[in-house]
């Protein structure tokens, strides 16, 4: 099955006609191939003690899809699977494994996967790390930890043009965003870190660089319910960050078009695309995707709704 476009807000299909399962995901471009990683939620929602549907599915693992055109996606399988036989393991189905992001370390030749690891009550609040020799895995899980002793929930990793990489994660029960430089092997954080948006309550961070400036798109903390996005700008990943405000324009702007940010894809000719999720909390496997090309008014970022995604 060949695709020329996908309908924004809906679940998308891969080249085999099957629903793409990469929620809360990120993108890696490696040797001309795009690799899309995300949460596999291809299961019915879990059921609570009273028989009501919970807003979660048991952990299946991190899925990967590959493409050369950002339209036609091949399913590369679950590249970091759940560990079903050990209830204490971070990747047991009863746990939380969210927002996976992968970067490639040219010095070590390793692909490094970072993700949010938690318990169902979100009190564990840790960051997990896995590595692989190939972008399609299987990734070997290393450990989880609280970066520099701070709780960690929604997160992303960012690799700058100089090869230096950073972890950005919501902390202090989501009140503050922490930004920490990673070690040279990308497997740990260093002591170089800053706090940003103190008492700002931001999550779902997505960062990119344009014309020497760094832009950070994030969501407010309203659970599964969509809310206004916010953009901040800095001259360095480590700040100081200055808030520009809500970048969305048009109908649905007040809810980021009923979506939530997850990653920004650097495209051709200086173009950028914001990847978002349209969550369906009572049927998470049907949560859709919307990819929105970023517009500009000078240095001001603008997001407008598009009905379809048809590539760059």
Characterization of the model:
This protein has one domain: Tachylectin-2, Chain A (5 Propeller), CATH 2.115.10.20. The mean pLDDT is 96. Strand 16 and strand 17 form a beta hairpin. It has no helices and 23 strands. The relative contact order is 0.14. It is mostly beta strands.
- How would you sum up the global shape? globular
- Look up the CATH topology: Tachylectin-2, Chain A
Strand content: over 45%
Low-confidence stretches: none
- Cross-sheet strand order for the largest sheet: 18-22-21-20-19
Domain unit count: 1
CATH top level is Mainly Beta
Number of helices: 0
Backbone structural class: mainly beta
CA-CA gap between termini: 20 Å
Task: Tell me the helix content.
Answer: under 10%
Helix-strand blueprint:
Blueprint (H helix, E strand, L loop, with lengths): L5 E2 L15 E8 L2 E7 L21 E7 L6 E8 L14 E10 L4 E9 L7 E7 L7 E6 L9 E5 L5 E7 L4 E7 L6 E8 L5 E9 L2 E8 L9 E5 L7 E4 L2 E2 L10 E7 L5 E7 L9 E10 L2 E5 L3 E2 L3
Parallel strand pairs: 18-22
Antiparallel strand pairs: 1-23, 2-3, 3-4, 4-5, 6-7, 7-8, 8-9, 10-11, 11-12, 12-13, 14-15, 15-16, 16-17, 19-20, 20-21, 21-22
Overview features:
mainly beta, five-stranded mixed β-sheet, globular, 312 residues, Tachylectin-2, Chain A, four-stranded antiparallel β-sheet
A few lines on this structure:
This protein has 312 residues and is an all-beta fold.
